[in-house]
């Protein structure tokens, strides 16, 4: 049971916690269980109260009250704390030394000093070895009953490595959490953030094929056949005559040239070109020069572990029980790929087997030459249908192919059809 008068601390920790100046002290590191008493009363009342407790356990807090200070010292209390940063007389100091009373001067007021004294306890006395914790991916609705019925007030939230990433308290369940989302660059829940199906979707801005998502209420859905969602977002500013800040314009320009390979991708449209010109004017950035710098400095294969690089931009597709993945990496030249080709193929094969895919494909695109290499692992029946030049096992040269959506996927669909089973349109089911 909590006792507001109980203080468990060493003399050294007590002085350090208070930020106090030690006038007389043993500076012991040995923890002691003390009884807190505040001398905010007349001398007679204080003397009576003092007599009720063992003096060697008393921690007395007092202000500029010389008589109370003397009574405490003559009563040989364990600690006397004078608040407000007030100095004590030479006679008080001498009496404290003679009676072996620890004398501290706290710069804080009385209330703050009392509170800090209780905080001088070491962590080991506050730790529970048996406690209730939750994973960071658990839903509040799933843990609420267990948490609210627990004796604990707070609960560590742990990541996959059991490291604490936050604290959940009972009071958190009283907060109304009303999440709202705007989906940008996708319109399928399978590609949205986890839990998107449980919150309100306000708006969708996208340039991909339509999925089958439903919403609770009518929403603004802006879907246009352009090369980049950045084009649509920028156009929202222009149409509504909202000033487009230069930093945001720069981000949109970067997104647009990345998505459309600076308007050279088959997905690029005249509308993308018009918006890009406006963004160049706002930012003062030359898109062509920026594109070269962007892709030259952003080699995924040169800067990341291969196992991570092959799934940076990876989508999973499924049709009639057959599941496969198609990823894309954009590079300036193929040097980084060829230096790690064996690693890439091994990682891709391992990824395909772990996921149980029919096959896994990785399109490595040279944004300067506007051509790609295709790395594929998996079903031999599919590999036999690929009629592009085979540079080495599982690696093909796809001259002029730069778009996964408009060029690679239709080709892979055709190859799948030729394996024997007639397939219909493939549908993306999740973003990896």
CATH level 1 class label of the largest domain: Alpha Beta
Question: Number of helix segments?
Answer: 16
Q: What level of helicity do the residues show?
A: 25-40%
Work out the strand percent.
15-25%
**Unreliable residue runs:** 422-432
- Pairing-aware structural class of the strands and helices? alpha/beta
Mean pLDDT: 89
What's the SSE blueprint?
Blueprint (H helix, E strand, L loop, with lengths): L5 E4 L1 H8 L2 E4 L7 E7 L4 H8 L7 E5 L3 H9 L4 E4 L7 H9 L3 E4 L4 H9 L15 E2 L4 H9 L5 E5 L5 E6 L10 E5 L15 E7 L13 E4 L5 H11 L6 H15 L9 H14 L3 H11 L2 H4 L2 H4 L4 E6 L2 E10 L3 H5 L1 H15 L3 E8 L4 E8 L1 H4 L6 E3 L2 E4 L5 H15 L8 E5 L1
Parallel strand pairs: 3-4, 4-5, 5-6, 7-8, 10-11, 11-12, 14-15
Antiparallel strand pairs: 1-3, 2-6, 8-9, 13-14, 13-19, 15-16, 16-18, 17-18
What does this structure look like?
35% of the residues lie in helices and 23% in strands. Mean pLDDT is 89; it is low at 422-432. By secondary structure, it is of the alpha/beta class. Strand 8 and strand 9 form a beta hairpin. It contains 16 helices and 19 strands. It has four domains: 6-123, 3-Layer(aba) Sandwich (Udp-n-acetylmuramoylalanyl-d-glutamate--2,6- Diaminopimelate Ligase, Chain: A, domain 1); 129-174, CBS-domain; 186-297, inorganic pyrophosphatase (n-terminal core) (Alpha-Beta Complex); 301-431, Roll (Diaminopimelate Epimerase, Chain A, domain 1), CATH 3.10.310.20. The longest helix is centred in the middle third of the chain and has 15 residues, at 246-260.
């Amino acid at each position: 049971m909590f006792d507001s008068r109980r203080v468990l601390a060493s003399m050294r920790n007590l002085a350090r916690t208070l930020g106090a100046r030690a006038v007389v002290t043993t500076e012991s590191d040995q923890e002691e269980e003390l009884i807190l008493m505040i001398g905010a009363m007349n001398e007679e009342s204080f003397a009576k109260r003092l007599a009720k407790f063992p003096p060697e356990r008393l921690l007395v807090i007092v202000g500029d009250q010389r008589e109370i200070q003397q009574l405490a010292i003559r009563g040989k209390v364990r600690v006397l704390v004078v608040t407000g940063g007030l100095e004590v007389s030479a006679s008080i100091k001498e009496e404290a030394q003679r009676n072996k009373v620890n004398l501290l001067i706290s710069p804080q007021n009385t209330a703050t000093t009392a509170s800090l004294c209780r905080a001088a306890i070491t962590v080991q006395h506050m730790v529970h070895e048996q406690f209730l914790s939750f994973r960071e991916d658990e839903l509040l609705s799933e843990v609420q009953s267990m948490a609210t019925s627990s004796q604990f007030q707070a609960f560590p939230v742990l990541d996959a490595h059991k490291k604490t990433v936050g604290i959940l308290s009972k009071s958190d369940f009283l907060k109304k959490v009303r999440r709202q989302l705007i989906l940008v660059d996708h319109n399928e829940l399978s590609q949205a953030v986890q839990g998107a199906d449980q919150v309100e979707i306000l708006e969708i801005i996208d340039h991909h094929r339509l999925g089958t998502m439903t919403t609770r209420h009518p929403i603004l859905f802006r879907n246009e056949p352009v090369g980049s969602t950045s084009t649509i977002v920028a156009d929202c500013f222009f149409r509504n005559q909202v000033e487009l800040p230069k930093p945001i314009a720069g981000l949109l320009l970067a997104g647009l040239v990345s998505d459309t390979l600076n308007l050279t991708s088959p997905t690029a449209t005249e509308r993308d070109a018009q918006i890009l010109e406006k963004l160049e004017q706002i930012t003062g950035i030359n898109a062509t020069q920026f594109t070269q710098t962007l892709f030259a400095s952003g080699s995924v294969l040169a800067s990341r572990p291969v196992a991570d690089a092959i799934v940076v931009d990876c989508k999973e597709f499924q049709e009639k029980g057959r599941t496969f993945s198609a990823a894309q990496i954009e590079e300036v030249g193929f040097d980084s790929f060829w230096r790690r080709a064996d690693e890439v193929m091994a990682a891709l094969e391992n990824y395909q087997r772990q996921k149980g895919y029919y096959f896994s494909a990785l399109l490595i695109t040279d944004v300067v030459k506007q051509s790609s290499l295709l790395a594929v692992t998996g079903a031999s029946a599919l590999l036999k249908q690929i009629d592009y030049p085979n540079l080495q096992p599982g690696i093909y040269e796809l001259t002029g192919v730069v778009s996964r959506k408009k060029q690679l996927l239709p080709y892979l669909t055709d190859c799948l059809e030729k394996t024997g089973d007639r397939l219909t349109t493939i549908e993306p089911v999740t973003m990896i």
